Amino acid sequence: MGRLTGKVAIVTGAGQGAGAGCALAMASEGASILLVGRTLSKLEAIAREVDARGAKAVAFSADISDRTALRAIVDKAVEAFGRIDALVNAAQAPEMRSARLLDIEDDAVQELWTSGPVATLALMRLCHPHMQAAGGGSIINFASGALRAPANYGVYAGCKAAIEAIGRAASVEWGPDNIRVNTVVPFVLSPSMDLDMSADVQELVAAKLPLRRLGRPEEDIGRTVAFLASDDSAYMTGNLVTLDGGSWSNK
């Protein structure tokens, strides 16, 4: 019996990186999971790993920047598992995270905004009645260390700041419904990081962290998210949880 046995979670961005790490960690705790992402083959590979751990998973290909797809995600989770207890909003378009405000293209701004705070809020609102019907739930949103150092990441940082503020508002407004909302700030090895930094740069960055390494998707990010989704964190809401090897404290 894991701490999430009997619980159902939706995890976006579940095909790779931190999203996949969260799905696997939650599966190890017994959760049934709807795996959401753009690439079905990646989701199916994660689903096989979930199955190997004795948990249940359904792979569901969807683009979270498509508003009609968001309702389909929630409907699919209810159809497959009958309830929703947790939502992990890990997905975010990787395009143009690093860009000066005068250089970033309008299309990239729209993509970051739509796939970030717009999709996050929409999924939160769609999941709310199902969590309320289940007696409560836990939402874990993803922010970024760019909140602390936004220069050259201004639009991306702004999107993540909006997500953090929306989460805090929801933690207050939805607390009486026993729906908790927390935000994590990961610094994690992922394909998205590979777009921003070469392997050599990643090594240099890791060497400057207090813990001297970059985060691991499952062990360092996923396990904390699984804790936040569980009843073991029943008195935690409205928090910004940094999972960055000490980067936040070292700036």
From TrEMBL:
Q: Which Pfam families match?
A: adh_short_C2
Q: Which controlled-vocabulary keywords does the entry list?
A: Oxidoreductase
PROSITE patterns per the UniProt record, alphabetical: ADH_SHORT, PROKAR_LIPOPROTEIN
Q: Which family does it belong to?
A: Belongs to the short-chain dehydrogenases/reductases (SDR) family.
Q: This chain belongs to which protein, by name?
A: SDR family oxidoreductase
The record's InterPro entries line, in alphabetical order, gives: NAD(P)-bd_dom_sf, Sc_DH/Rdtase_CS, SDR_fam
CDD domains membership:
SDR_c
Q: Please provide, alphabetically and separated by semicolons, the GO molecular function terms listed in this UniProt record.
A: oxidoreductase activity
Tell me what organism the protein belongs to. Sphingomonas montanisoli
